[in-house]
């Protein structure tokens, strides 16, 4: 069964594209350029690698676009199960997180602009500019912490739809519920107890593989919702 005629495989392909592009700005660039507690070194690294930083911004933009197509693919897959839940999935998993991605690009643009020393910033001395770079990066981090609420909430309607669909294994639906709850806990930990966020992230790893499970299932097995019953003559 090819991807064009299999809505599940289409959703799996969009999910794979999202997973491949996400780690660049989320994991690789912070590990490569950011120095914990050292604003001067962080600003210097960004100024020395502007194209890498710009690729991170582009990956956020691409991620926002992919999210929209991904949730539309899920809507096509699950609308016959429960249309209201499918609409909720589109809003909480696509539209709102995509907007936050665009905002994150703006904060990164501010960090890059300050790190490169735009002319109109000459009124600030170098330590002040370094502090501004760190401020923009911290804002980016806090926006991701806020977005984790949405990363979790959209998995609740997806889990319910997967559980009720009968063409996706029920254990994956349950796993998605657990995955969503883990993201919500991560977000709240980052807001109220930021010192423990990394520890909670490590402890929640098994739960966070729920999304990977449904992505692999859709890519490998696919999913085809049943045809609607024909109306009686």
What does this structure look like?
The protein is mainly alpha-helical and 233 residues long. The protein has a domain at 7-147 and 212-220. It is built from ten helices and no strands. It has helices spanning 7-21, 23-33, 39-48, 50-78, 83-116, 126-153, 155-165, 170-192, 197-203, 210-220. α3 packs across α6 and α8 runs antiparallel to α10. The longest helix is centred in the middle third of the chain and has 34 residues, at 83-116. It is elongated, with a radius of gyration of 20 Å. 37% of the residues are buried. The model has no long low-confidence stretch (mean pLDDT 90).
Which features would summarize this protein structure in a list?
mainly alpha
Taking the sheet with the most strands, its summary is: none
Q: Please tell me what the overall shape is.
A: elongated
Q: Calculate the terminal CA-CA distance, rounded to whole Å.
A: 31 Å
The proportion of residues forming helix, as a percent range, comes to: over 70%
The whole-angstrom Rg is 20 Å
Mean pLDDT: 90
Instruction: Specify the structural class.
Output: mainly alpha
> Uncertain segments of ≥5 residues (pLDDT<50)?
none
Given the structure, what is the number of helices? 10
């Amino acid at each position: 069964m090819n991807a064009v005629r299999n809505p599940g495989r289409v959703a799996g392909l969009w999910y794979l594209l999202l997973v491949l592009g996400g780690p660049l700005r989320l994991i690789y660039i912070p590990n490569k350029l950011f120095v914990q507690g050292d604003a001067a070194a962080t600003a210097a690294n960004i100024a020395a690698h502007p194209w890498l930083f710009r690729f991170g911004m582009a990956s956020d933009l691409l991620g926002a676009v992919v999210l929209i197509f991904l949730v539309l693919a899920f809507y096509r897959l699950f609308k016959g199960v429960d249309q209201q839940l499918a609409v909720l999935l589109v809003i909480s998993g696509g539209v709102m997180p995509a907007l936050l991605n665009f905002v994150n690009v703006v904060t990164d643009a501010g960090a890059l602009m300050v790190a490169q020393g735009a002319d109109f910033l000459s009124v600030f001395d170098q330590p002040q500019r370094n502090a501004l770079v760190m401020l923009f990066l911290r804002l980016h981090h806090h926006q991701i912490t806020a977005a984790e609420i949405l990363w979790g909430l959209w998995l609740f309607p997806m889990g319910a739809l997967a559980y009720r669909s009968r063409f996706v294994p029920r254990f994956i639906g349950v796993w998605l519920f657990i995955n969503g709850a883990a993201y919500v806990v991560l977000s709240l930990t980052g807001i109220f107890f930021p010192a423990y966020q990394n520890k909670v992230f490590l402890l929640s790893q098994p739960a966070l593989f729920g999304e990977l499970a449904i992505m692999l299932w859709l890519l490998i097995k696919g999913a085809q919702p049943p045809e609607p019953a024909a109306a009686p003559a």
